[in-house]
Please model this.
Amino acid sequence: MTKEIIRFFILFVILVLSQVVVFNHFCLFGVAIPLVFVYFIIKLPITLGTNWVLTFSFLLGLAIDLFSNTQGMNALACTLTGIIRLPVLRLYAPRQDDITNPVPSVGSLGAVVFMKYAATIITLYCLLFFVIEAFAFFDIMRLLMRAAGSALLTFVIIIAFDGFTSRR
Amino acid sequence: MRNLLNFFIRYSTWFVFVFYVVLSCVLLFQKNPYQHHVYLTSANTVASGVYDVTSNITGYINLRDINEDLQRRNAMLESEVIALRNRNRQLRQSIMQDSLRQLDSIGGFEFIIASVINNSVIKPYNYITIDKGKADGLAPEMGVMDQNGVVGVVNVVSDHHARIISLLNPHFRLSCKLRGNDAFGSLVWDGKKPTEALLEELPKQVKFRHGDTIITSGYSAMFPEGIPVGIIDGSTRGEDDNFNTLRIKLLTDFTTLSTVKVISNRDIVDIRQAEAGTAN
Model:
């Protein structure tokens, strides 16, 4: 049990650091920014209570905000993503399957289901984040392009990262 | 009473959710960067520590470009020094005094050199973090420039680090004028490209040409007059019948910022008091 907690804590630190040091400066074609810390929300165990999921998502968003001078934007988007995570998963995965491994991954859910789940969460997060960011600065074409580009880039990076790290 | 408690416990998820959303919204809607607390910005200890380490490591990547830029600037300054020395000599002979009064514009200002440890150009609101703070004499609302032009204004200061509102941030409006003309307007970034900004509120009767230089007007306590900001680049967009809006190509290269100078104005307390109407 504590080994899992330590693993998640290390994952949290690695994701925040890599986002802040490396991925914040990527900007493909001037629009797409990878937001790889969403991986942490995707990987939270299904059996974890929603209160804890919300708390961890909020802390993740707050940590990214501290480093990126984006006060509150990531925190709000992460909290919203945290609460719709379980309904999205229930939408794609049948109820009985995941008793074996509570952590969602390619091994426990099957590649197709995991990819659909990850893609939905990532796209929703990117859309939420850029809409919140655009409250003062409304240019719908640019917003859609940024959300779509970042979602695609983040999806590719996260699937690759998951392929390296999760056990079969 | 017990029913109320049971209600809270059963629907605790929603209460936790609403609590976090409200907390994020409170943080989010402090739109004005002048009110941010230092702990929530990149000038706090943890964030600035991480950025110090990474900028030490990545500092070598841009060195060649910075070197060429500095050499070019050096050559320009050396020739300017020679010209000024000659002029001084001639003036001294004609006035027959031992020393000349210092030009007001440069006299009251001091520079504090700092390194940039975090920068961004791709967000809608961009900030820069530097490695000098209160202990080095920085205070909020000091102007910041580098060897090419204006960079921004100091916003939040901790003991050894500070956050600067970049010129690429629509919260920052700079009072600028055309070189050679006293008419002034407001320079503001429009959020599109990191190399261009808009000069607004320029009176319609002012004559300008493609390629003219825009400089600081000196109408703020943050920047002395005459610091180059950009070059007029192309068409005007007349939104208002009385004012022109010009597209300006910025002289500062925000993508390779490494060393900046913070301008410390010794008269700033006086000026702020006069502006606030509390001077005697």
The longest helix of chain B spans residues 63-95.
